[in-house]
Amino acid sequence: MSAADFDIRVAAVRDAWLGRSWTVEDDVTRATMRRIAAMLDMDPDAFPRGAEVPAHWFSLFCAESARQGEIGADGHPAPGVVLPPIPLARRMGAGRRVQLHGGFRVGEVLSKRAEVAAIEPKQARTGTICVLTMRHSFSVGDRPVAVDEFDAVYREAVPPGTASPVNTGTPAPTDAAWSVQRFLPSTLVFRYSAITWNAHRIHYDADYTRDVEGYPATVQNGGLTMQLLLDAAVAQAAGQRLDSFTARLTRPISVGDTVTLAGHAVADGAMAAWVAGQDGALCAQMELRFA
């Protein structure tokens, strides 16, 4: 596809989809909380009815539920079913900007209003890409909980047998005030994918991941990476309420790796945190603000 044809097709998708919105509701049940807590290696009975849920756990709810017949070859819903039919074959999460407004409790109904906020074609080091920004506004009734602007990057498919282009690696900071090592077993990725209803095959199908997407091994779920880093950072800021955060994924992590979650101490209500891969490369970074 020529650059001109690509721009024309993206413009048509933007005209049809920009500003489109829909709503997904989810019951915050004890059964779901038991599964989330167990997945995060916590006491499954720690969240009885009426208990407050950590505010930054909102993204574990209100998953899109495409029918099985609507799933594409990569495991995502087929283009145009849930997300715009952007004319590039591969999609991965890239970053988030989140504002937290208040918590929610077990037994409440959490609602997500999803909106197509931006569709931007770009030329990157790895070739033609397109950045889709989704704005997800969460609430309980009329009470706002969080607004999450999430960026997904679409890129061209690599030829069969070709390695997917990957950032060679910027070294992670070495001046951490705290750090936690986390092993990322396939069982953890499976449980997170089940809770968030994510069937992207790069997280569990090694043959597909190598032969089609060009990665050397199954790929860690970026949402899980952010979840683990958020939990670790919030634990280090005990007694302070998380107000907002921004996050960016900079390098894929393989399932089965051991990573280091690390960060600085809170200073003037702010904290920088990051994920270092097994080779010390920076894989994700986050800026958090506490009230």
TrEMBL record:
InterPro entries: FAS1-like_DH_region (IPR039569), HotDog_dom_sf (IPR029069), Mitochondrial_HTD2 (IPR052741). Residues 82-146 form the FAS1-like dehydratase domain. Pfam families: FAS1_DH_region (PF13452). This is MaoC family dehydratase N-terminal domain-containing protein. It comes from Sabulicella glaciei.
